[in-house]
Queue: 4 jobs
Job 1
Amino acid sequence: MAAEVAAATAAHGGSFSRLESGSGVADADLVLTIIEDDAGPQPAAAPAPGDHATTDDNAILRGGCVPITRDGVVGEPEAAGEPEADESFRLSRDDGSVVVEAACDRGLLYGFFHVVRLGEAAFSGPDLVERHAPATAMRMLDHWDNVAVHAVMGQVERGYAGGSIFYDDGAVRADLSRVEAYARLLASTGINRVAINNVNVHAREARLLTDDLPHVARIAAAFRPWGIRVHLSVSFAAPMTLGGLDTSDPLDPAVADWWRDAADRVWAQIPDFGGFVVKADSEGQPGPFAYGRDHADGANMLAEAVAPHGGLVHWRAFVYDHRQDWRDRSTDRARAAHDHFAPLDGRFAENVIVQVKYGPMDFQVREPASPVLAAMPRTRVALELQVTQEYTGQQKHAVYLGRQWSEILDFDFTGPDSDGDADSASRIPSPTSVAGIVAPSGGIVAVSNVGDDEFWTGHPFAQANLYAYGRLTWDPAADAVGLLDEWISLTFPGAPADVVDALHTILDESWETYERYTSPLGVGFMVRPGHHYGPDVDGYEYTPWGTYHFADRDGIGVDRTVATGTGYAGLYPEPWASVYESLETCPDELLLFFHHVPYTHVLRSGKTVIQHIYDTHFEGVERVEEFVAAWERVLGSLSGDAMSDDDAARLAGRVSERLAEQRRSAIEWRDQINTYFYRKSGIPDEQGRTIF
C-alpha cells in the first residue's frame, strides 16, 4: 500500500518515506507504526492517564515505521491464514504531530482511516492519547448476488443498484478493479468480512465451492490487502448436487467426509477464507429436517469440517413455516425462530454463529427486537440487519437507517428503565443490550446494498446507510445523527452550508417519515407480494406467508399476548413480557404488532388508532414534499472544488428523479392506506381531508 501513499501525497501535497526500525522520524506530521517485540505483535496498550506516545526510536517504535504527511495509508496485508489479530490502535498527538500505533497492519489501517475522517482536526487541539478498538471482532456484510441472472430475483436478490460487482454473464468478472475499490471503501468504515453470494444458493452459485474456487480466490485476493476475509453461502444439499451422494444427512459419515474434503480444498486455495453461510430449512432451502435432524446437528457437522482451518459457520435463524394456513390464528410466524432455536441453546459448536434477524418477522420498518438474541446465552449469536432497503423504499426512497439500527442496538432486555445504557465515555454497550449480547459473541452482519450502478447504491443518499452500518459495527454506541453528518462532510467536502443543511434535513428523520406514510404502529408489511414495493394492504393477508394484519370492521392488529393470543409476548424476559402483554404499557409504535384493538382505541398521544393512521399518512407525504423542496433549493450550489459541473448534474438528476418517485409513492401509500381503513371502519377523518 506504499504506492497508494505515494499517489495520495503526489495528488494532495506533502511527502512520505518508509523507514526501517531504528530510523529517525523527525519532522513527520504523521507516523504510523507497528508495535512489535520478540514474541510477535502485541495489543496496543491502553495509555496511563497523561501518557503520551513518543517518537523516540528506542522506546515504543520497535517495529518498522512509516512517517507520512497528512494523506495516505501504510502496511502490508496480513499473511494468509494468520489468526485473528488485535485490530485496535492508539492515537497520540504531541505538539501537532500525530502517531498511530497498532499491533497489526489492520489496526494501523483503521488508525489511518480515523485520521483521514478527522482531517485537519487530527493535528490540532491539546495533546492527547487515545486507544480505539472495535466493539466486536465480527463486522460482516452478506451479498445476495447471483452468478447467473435469476429469472425472478435478477442478478442481485433484493438488489436495487444494478448488477453484481462480482459476477457478470454467468461468471466471476475478469476485471475486479471495482471490487478492489469497494474493499477499500469497506475497510474505511471498519468492515472485516464479506460473504459474496446469495444465501438462496442456486445451481450455478453452488459451483463457487468447486469449479469456480480459483475465481473465488481472485475475489479474496482483492479484499485481502484491506483486512477483509471472504465467506461463501453454501447449499446444505451440496453433497448431493455437487458430490453425487444420495443423501445430505448430517449424521451420515459420507456426508461429513464430503464436507471435510470440500473445506480442505477451499482453504488450500484461500488460506484466510472465513467460512460458510447457511440458510437451511427455510423458504424451500434444503436442510437437516429432511432427515429428522435439527439445526444443531446440521450446523455442527459443517463446523467440524471447517474447524481445522479456523473457519466459521454462520447458520441463519430465519426459519419459519411459509406454508401456513391464514385461517389458523394460533400459528404465528413471529414465534418461529425462537421455537426452533432457543431449545438448542448450548448444543452448537464454538465455531457456529447463529445469525438472527433483528426482529421476528422480516426487516420491517418497525419490529420489536428478536427475543432469540436474549434466549441463547450459551450460543454465539450475531445480529442481522438489512442495509439494502427491501422494505424501506428499495433505494428509490431516501431513508437513512442509522437511527433505526441505533435503536435496535441500544435495546436492553433488562427493561426500559434499566441502568444498562451504553457508557458514552467508554463506548462499551450494556451487556444486556442487543449490542452488548452480540458484540462479544457473533458480531453484526447485514445484507449489502451495492451494485454496479454509477452511484454504487442506486440512490446516492443510500450510501449513507452503507457508511453508518460499518461505523456502527465498530462502535454500536456511536451517535447515528453524528454518523450521518460525518458521511455528509466526507461525501460532500467543502459543500456550502445550504447543501449540508438540505442533506441533513432530508435524511435525519427519513426513517420515521417512511414509517409515517407506510404501515402504522408496528403492524408491518402491507406491501405488494413478490417484489415488496408499494402498498397492497391485503396483498399477503390470505396467503401462506404468515404476514397478517387481521383488519376487520371492528379493529386491526395481531393478538400475540399470552392471555388470549399466540403467546409470543411471553417469549421475552421480564419486564418486557409484561410490558408487551398489557395494552396499558405496550409502546404505541408496536401496539398493532402485539394487540388486536378497536379503531377507537386511544393512544398515549390522545388520538384514536384510526385518527393516528389518517394523520401520519398525511404528515408523511407533507414531509416528503419538504424533502423535494429542500433539494430543489440547493441544486445550483452542488458543484464546486470537490465536484465538477458534470458530476453535480448527474447527481442532481438522479436524486431529483428518486425524490419525485418517493413523493409519488408516498401519495399512493397515503391514499390506499387511508381509504382502506376508512372503508373498513366507517369512521371519517376528523379534519375532513380527502379520503377516497
Job 2
Amino acid sequence: MMNNIKFKRTIPVVFDLLNAEDDPAQILYYQNLITCMWASPLLFLGALANIIVVYFFWGGNLVEVLLNSGIFLLLGLSFEFISRKELTINLFDHLVSLTQSITLAFIVVQYYQIIGPAVWSVSFVMIILSLMRLKITMLYYIAITTFVCGLYVTFLLPVDGFLFSPVYFLIQNLLFCFIFCLASATFYLNLNRYDKAVVRLNAVTSQKEKIARLYKKLILTKKTLTVQNQELQAFNEEIRKNEERLHFLAYYDGLTELPNRKMILERLHLLVNLSENEKASFFIVFIDLDNFKKINDTMGHLYGDDYLRYTAKRLKELVHEDDLLGRLGGDEFALIIQRNIKEDAAYNYVESLRNELCDKIKTSCSEFKVSASFGISVFPQDGKDPIELLNSADTSMYKAKELGRNNIQFFRPDMKEEILNKIQMESLLLKAYENKEFFIEYQPQFNAEDHHIRGFEALIRWDSPHYGRVAPMNFIPLAEEMGLIIGIGHWVLLTACHKFKELDMRFDQNLCVSVNVSAVQMRDKNFVDTVKNVLSETSMDPRQLELEITESLFIDNIEETIDMLNEIKALNVRISLDDFGTGFSSLSYLRRLPIDTLKIDKSFIDDLSDQDSSIRIVGDIISLGHNLDAHIVAEGIENSTQLDYLKANNCDCIQGFMFGKPMSVKDMEALLQKNPLK
C-alpha cells in the first residue's frame, strides 16, 4: 500500500521526502507522486491554452475545442485522482504510466497536424523522465505508445498538414530504437549501480540496526544486571540476617534470649579443654525455680512465660559479667562461673544470687514469691566432661529441693547413690501398684474413759520383694510425686470401707473407720465423686466413715479446700484434722472448717512430763478443740503417765501402742469379740 503519512503536498516537500527515503518502494511512490503533481497542472493549463489559442487565435470549431479541453481536464483529474487513492505501489505505477501513455496518444492524434514533429519531443521528454525512475514500467508504456503513434502518423494520418514519408518513419523509428536501447541500457546500468548501492546501504542499515539492537540489548542487560545485582545484594543481606537468626536460634533461647543448652555445652567443652591444660577449675551452677509448676498450672502458660522472662532478666542483672548464664529448658537455668575463685567464694556468690533473687510478683489474681534451688558441681572432681558436670549439678539441685527448696547444695558422691535409690524405689513402687503388693492394717481407737472401741484407722502397708516392709513415710511422698497416690488412695478407701462394712454387719458396734487422705487427692476435682461412688458401692453408712486430712492441705488454696470439705460434709461423712499443731494452724480458718475431730500429733504426746511446758500446750489444744465443738483424739499413747494426763484434761479418745498396734483383719475380729478392752 502507498504511504498514508500525512504531509504537505508540494513539490519541494515531496522532493525532500524523496531525498531522505531509503526504501525503494517508497522512492517509487514519491516519483509517481511527483509525476502526478507535474502532470495535473500542465494538463489543466493545456485545457485553457487549447481554448485560447485554437479557438480565439486560430478560429477552430468551438465544439471540437471544448471537447479537446474537456479531455485535457479529464486527464489532469485522472492524475490527481490516482495520486490521492490508497493503492499498491505496482498498481499506482501502472496507472500513472498508462495515463501518461493515453495523454501522449491524445496529443499525437489531436494536435500532430498543428504542432507536427514537436510531439516527438514530448515523447522523448517522457522517455527521459522514465529513465530517472526506479522501475522500467513507464518506459515500456511510453515506448509502445510512441511506436504506435509513429505508425498512426505514417500510415493513418490524413494527407493534409504535415507529411511523414515511410523513409522518414523508418529513420525515426531506428533512431527511436537506438534511443530506447540506449535509455534501457543506461537505465539498467544505473539500476544495477543503484541496486549495489542499495545492497551496501541495506548492509550498513542492517549493521546499524544490529548494532542498535545490540546496544539496546546491552542497555537492557545492564539494567537486568543492575536489578540482579540489587536482588543479589538484598538476597545476601537476607542470607546474612537468616544466618544471624539461625545462629540465634541455634545458640539462644527464644523466650528469655539467654544462651541455650547447646551453647552451655559448647562452652563447657571449651572450659574443660582449657582447664585440663592449665590445671584450673570452674563451677557449674544448676538453678531450678521453686513452685514453677504450680504457678504455670494456676495462672496459665502465658503468665508462666512472663515469670520465666522476669527471672531471667533478674538473674542477668545479678550475675558477674565474666560468667555465662543460660537456660537449659523449662524452669531450669545454668550458670558457668568461669573465674578462678575458691569454693567458699563461689558459695558466697551463689548465696548472694539466691538472696537477691527472692522477690514477690504481684498480679491481679495472686502474689507469688520468686525463689530457686541451687546445685553446684566443680570441675574436675565432680565430672570430667560437660554431661557429667551437668548431671552432678542437677543431682545436687534435686538434693536442695528435698531439703526444703530455696537453698544451695554442693555435689557430694553419695548424692548419686541417693538418686539411684530413688529411681529404683520409683520403679519398684510402680510395679507394686501394678502387682497389688499393698495391704491394709487397722489401728484401733478407744474412748479415754471406758476404753470402749471407737473405731479403727486404716493404714496402708507395703511389703516389697526387694526392700521388705517399707514405712509409709518412705513411699507415700514418692507416690504423690509420681501421681500414683490418687489410684492408691481410691484402693485404700474402697478396701477399708468394704472390710469395715463386713465387720459392722457381723458385730454391729456402731464403730467408725478413719482413712487418711493425701493433699494430692483433695486437689483432685473428682474426689467428692470418688467418695460418693465408694459409699454407694459398699452400702456403708457415711456417718461411720471419717476422712483424715492434714493442715498442709490449706497452704495452697484454702477457699477451694473449704468448699470441697463442705461438699464431703454434706454427704454426712466425718472429717478429722490430723497432726494438729504441727502445721500452719490458724484460728481464722479453724473456725471455718467443717471438722468433726482434731487429732493431737504424737510429738506432743511423747513430750508429756511434769517438767515439760508441752503439758500445758496439750491441755490448751484439747480445750481449743472442745471450744470448736470437735472430738479430740490423741495418738501415740504408750504409757500410763500420758494416759492419766489426757484423762485429766478431758481428752475424748486415745490411740497408741499401749492399747493396740496396727493389726490384721483377723486380729481386728478377735479384738471386737472382747470389746470393751479390759
Job 3
Amino acid sequence: MLKQDDDLRFNNYPYFLGDQDSIGEDLDLITFDSIALGGVDLGAVKKDLFVKLDLDDFGWLNKDSVYFLEISNPSFREVELYRFNTDGKLAYKELVGTAVKSENSLRNPNPYFNIQLGKDLSPTVVLRVNSKVPLKFEAFIYPYSSFNKNYSLRLIIISFYFGIMVALFLYNLILYFAVKDRVYLFYCFYILFIGLAQLSISGHSYFLLQKNVFLYELSIIGFTTLSSVFVIPFIQLFLRTDEYIPKYEKYLYLIPLSYVISLVLWQMGFVEISYSMMDLNGLIFVVCFFTIGIIAARGGNRSAYFFLLAWSFLLIGLVVLILHNLMIINLGSYANAPLLAGTAIEALLLSFALADKINILKKEKEDEQLDKLEAVKENERLIKEQNVFLEDMVKSRTEELELTLKNLQNTQTQLVNQEKMASLGQLTAGIAHEINNPINFVSSNISPLKRDLKDILELMDVYREKGKLEFSEESKEEIDEMEEEIEFDYLLEEVEQLLNGMEDGAKRTVEIVRGLKLFSRVDEQDVKEVDLREGLDSTLILLNSTMTGVIKLTKNYEDVPMVECLAGKINQVFMNIISNAIHALLDHPIEGREPELTINTFFKDGMVGIQIKDNGVGMPDKVKEKIFEPFFTTKAVGQGTGLGLSIVYTIIENHKGSITVDSEQGVGTVFNIALPVNQKG
C-alpha cells in the first residue's frame, strides 16, 4: 500500500538562511553555499530558509505532463516558490502555507505547487520557507495521477485511523458509564488526545481548527500534553502501580509536568528548547512505561502482557519513523503511516486488555463474592451490546469513507460538466452570429417600407377625393403627374421586394432555431429513433459561421435507417469532432491546398456508419494513440481541457458502438463512427 514511485524524492538541497528579500529579480546560485543531503533538518531558526531544487535531477520528466512539487511538513507558515527563466530572471512566484489564504481546491495539509515545464523556464526551483517550528522536511515531485492517488490514499488512511480512534473513544466512554471504573474514562480521553495529536502531526487538524494558525501550532504540542495528563492515571489504575512500584508512583506525574513546561516554553518563544524537551519526554515516556510493564508482568499481572504487546507496536512505529528520518528507509509521503498504525494497534490492544481485565475481575470476584454473580453477568451483557454498537460504528465510518471516495471520483464528473459548458458556449456564439444577420435585415427594411406605404396612402387619399367628383381631364392630368412624381409603378415593385426580403429573413431565423432544437434535443431524455443526417445538418448549421467562404464542405449521404440513441449525446459527438476538424483546418493551413471537410453516411452489416474526414495536417502516431485519453490535448494552455474526445469515446461506447481514427501527417484525419440500429439487440 505504501509503495512509492521511483525517483520521486529530491536528494540534494543547497540552501542558505536570509530574510524575505534575499531573492530578487535575478537568480544568484553562489548564495546557496550550504547543502543538505536526503532532506533538510536544521531545527528551529529565526531566519527564512532558501532551498534550491534542480528539476534536471529527474531526466524522465515529460514536458507535456502536469507535475506537483510537495513539501513533507504541514506546519510551515509560508512556503514561497520562485521560478526563473533561462536567462536567470524571475518569471513568477507562488505563496502557500498555514498563514496564507490558499486557493488550492484540495484539502492537502502539505504545501504543494503545480510545476510547469517549458523551454523558457529554468529547471532551477527556489523555495523560501518561513516557520515557527523546526525546519525539517523533504521535497517530492509527482506526476498528476500519482499525486492524486497519494492524496486520496493518505486521506483514506487518516480518515480510517481517526474513525477507529473515535470509535474506541466512544466504546470505552460507554463502558465507563456501564461499569463506573475510572480506568475507562482516563483511557478514552488518552486515545482521543493521542489521536488528535497524530492529526496535528499529519497536518489535518489545521482544517478541523478552521485554519487558525496559532491554534494549529499550539495543538502539535498541546494535544500531546493532554494525552500525557490522562495516560498517567490510566497506567496507575491499569497496571496497579501502587502495588508494584509504590515508592516511585508519585514521580510519574513529572512526565506530564515536563510536557506542560515544554508547552509554556513554546508559548514564550523558546521553540528549539520546547521541541527538544518534547523529544526527550518521548524517550523517557517509553523507557518508563516499558519498565513498569516488565515489573508488573514479572509480578503476575496478566494485563501487563497486553500492555507490553501494545507498546511494542507503538515502539515499532517509532523505530520505523526514526529509520525514515535517518534515511535508512524511504517511506516518501507516508512517513507518518507507521506511527498511525502503531498508535491505532496500541489503542485496540489496550481496549482488548481492558475487556480482558473485566474477565479477570469476574474470576477473582467469583471466589470472594458469589452474591455478585448476577452483576457480573449483567456486565457481560453490556459488553456484548457495546461490541455490537462498536461494529455498527465501524460500519458507519466505513460507509462515510466510501462516500468520501465517491466524492473524489465525482471531481472528474465536474470536469466533464465544464467541457459541456464550453460546448454550450460555442453553440451560443454560433446561434448569435447566424440570427444576427437575418434579424438586422428585417429591422433595416421596416423604415423604407413604412415610408413607401405612407406615399401609397397619400396617393390613395387623392384618388378618393377626386373620385367624389366627376373626373375631368384636368384631374386626370393632376393624378398622372403625381403618379409620375412618386414613381408609382417602381414603388409597388419596391414594396414587393422589401416584403420578400423580410420573408426570407424570417425563414432563415426559423431554420436556425430548428437547427438548434435538433442539435440540443432538450425535450428528449429517452432513447428514440433518430435520423443521424438531421443531427449532422443541424451541427453544420451551428458551425456554418466558422466555415463559410473558408472551408469547402462535401456531404455524401446514403440512405440509412433510423437509429435508436440519445440524440443530444450523439449531436455532442458530432459537434466535438467537427469543431476539432475545423480548428485543425483553420489553425494549421497548408499552402496551396483548399481546406475541405467531407462527411459520409452509409449502412453496412447492420451498423450505421458516419465518416468525418478533413484534409488537414494530420497527426503523428504518438498523438493518435492518446487522443481518447482524459486530459490529453495538443492545444495551448487555456484553450482546451483534453476531455472533448474522451467524452466522445464514452458516449459511443455507451451506445454499444465503436469509433476509430485514421490519420496521416500531411494528408488528413478520418474519424469512423459505427452505431447499431437498435440498442436492445
Job 4
Amino acid sequence: MNATQPDLLSLLRSRDVRAVHEHLTDVQAQFEAGQLRERDLLDAFQPFNSSDLTLTEGFRQWMDDYPGTYAPHAAMAAWFLGRGWEARGESTSDQVSDQGWRALDHFLTQADGCARHATTLTDNPLAAWSVVALAGSTRGCQLTLDDVQRQAYPDWFTRGTQDNPASLYLRRLMLRHLRTEWGGSEEHMLTFVRQQQETRLLSDADIQRLWAEFHSHVSHHAMHFASDPAKGVERARMAADLHPAEAEQLFIALTGAKAPAAQRLDALRRYLSAADQDSTITPRGNFAWALLNSGEWTAPEVPRIAALLTRAAGAGDPDTAVTLGALRVTHPTWPLPDALPLLRAARDQGHTKAAEMIVYVHMLVRNPTPSELLQRRDDTLKAANLLSGPMSWEVYRHFEEYERQFGLEPRQKFLYLHRAADGGENDARYALAEQLRAGLVELGDDGVLRPVNTVPLQGSLDYARHLLERASGSGHRASGRVLRATKDRDWQAATARRIRVSPVHGVLRRMADAGRGQTPRVPWFLLIFAVIGIVRACAPDTSSSPRTAQEFLRQYGEQEKADPERMRLIERVAAGELRPVLEGGTVRFEPVTPK
C-alpha cells in the first residue's frame, strides 16, 4: 500500500464501503485515462489478495450497495484467490490435505468466475485479468511447448496485453505460469522471454527483470525439485546480478547447497539492501526456510531481518508473522520483536498457520502454570476451529479436558477427529481409518462423522483405505505397514472382518496423564527446531543444555514416549551426528560433515 492510499481493508471491515468503492473506482478511472501507472493500479487492488475472514460482511454489503460494478467484483475475486491459497497452504502438492484440495478448488472456481465477470464491467480490467491468471496458474500450466512457440496463450494474457501492450506485470505472470514445476519447462520459459525481447515493447530494464526472474525460476526448480544445487546456485547468481531482489533466491540456493557462511551472508546482505530501497519487496516462503537453517553468523543482520519481517507482517502478510514465531523458537537469542501480537492479529483474520504457531510457541514454556495451560487449550481450540489438522488432533486426543473447560458436546469429539484427519494430520488419518474398519464410526452423506457399532460399510472401507494411502504417501510408516499387511478382501464389505482397536490410536501414543492439565505433545518439527537451537549454541551459555533426547523431552515437559526410531533421530541430532533440514514443511536428515 502506498503512502497516499487509505487503509481499504479497515474501511471494508467497518462497512464504510462507499469510501472503498469511490477510491478504487477513481483509481481505475485514472488508470484507464492514462494518468496512473500499472504498478499504482495493482498496488491499489493488492490488499484484497487476502484470506481475512473479517472482510466477509463488508464484501456482502459492498456487492449489495454497488451491484454490477467493477471494483467490488475485482476485489472479491482477489479475496477468493487468497482464501484458496490459505486453505491449500505452502506445502508441496503431496502434503496438501483433503480439506485443502476441496477448499482450493472451491475458491479457485469462485475467484475465476468473479474475475471473469469483472472483465466485462470496465474497459481495461487489468486487476481482474491478473486474478484469472493466478487462478489458472494454481491449477497448473496446460500449454505445450508448441503452444508457446505459436504464441497460443490464454485469454488473460492475449486480451490483457492488447489493452496493456507494455505490461511487465502480465509478462511476469506468464513467466511464472510456465514454470517447470507447474507443468511448463525451462524451454517454455526461455522461448517466452526471447519472444518478449524480440517484440521491443518493453524497456531494457523490464527485459532485464524478465531474464532475472527466468534464471531465478530455473534455480528454484534445480534446488527443490531436481536436486541440482550447483545449477541452482549458478542460476541464482545470474538472477541476482540482473536484479537486486533476486539476491533472495541466491541466499536460498546457497543455503541449500551448504555454501560457506561468508557467501550466504553476502547474499543475505544484498537482498536486505534491495528490500531497504524498495518497500514493495517482501520475503517469499523459502526465505524463511533459509533463515531457519542459518547460524550465528547471521546475527549482525538480525535487526534488518526483523525490520523486513515486521514490515511485511504489518502490511498484512500473515506468513511473515509465522516466520517470526518460528525464528523465536529456533534462534532464541536473536533480538526479534514479540511475534505473538502479529500472530494473534493474523489468527483473528482466519490464518490457520498463525493460530498453530501461537500454540507451538506456548508448548515450549517450561512448567506452565494452571492459567497458562487454560490459555494454551483456548489457543489450541481456536486453531482447531480454523480447521488445523494438528490442533484438531490435540483436541480429540484430550477431549475430556476441552469438554470440561469449554462445555463442548460429547458428539463434537468425532467432529475434531474427522477435522484432524481431513486436515492432513497423519496420526488422525490412521486413527480414523482404524475406527472406520472397526465399524465404530461412519461418515454420513452430510459429511458428519457419527459413532456406530456395526459391520463397516463399503464407503467406510474406501475412505479408510484412502486415509491410509494419504498418510503413507507422506511418510507415515504405521499406515504403510497396514496397507502392506492387508489383502483386497480386507477392503470389501462382503469379506472384510471388523478389527479391534483402542479408543485412541496413533504412531505416538500419549502416556497416561499423571494429573489434569499435562502438556500436549510437542509437534515433531518444533522438537527439531528446538534441538537445532540447542545444538548450534544459540544461547551464550550452553552448559545446561540437554545432551540427550530423553533429557530434552523432560526439560520441555514432554510426556510422550516416541517410537525408538524417532527417539534415535533426536539423539543423533542432539549429538551433532545428523543435521535436520526443513524443506516444504517436511524434515529430512543429512550427516554432519566434520570441520
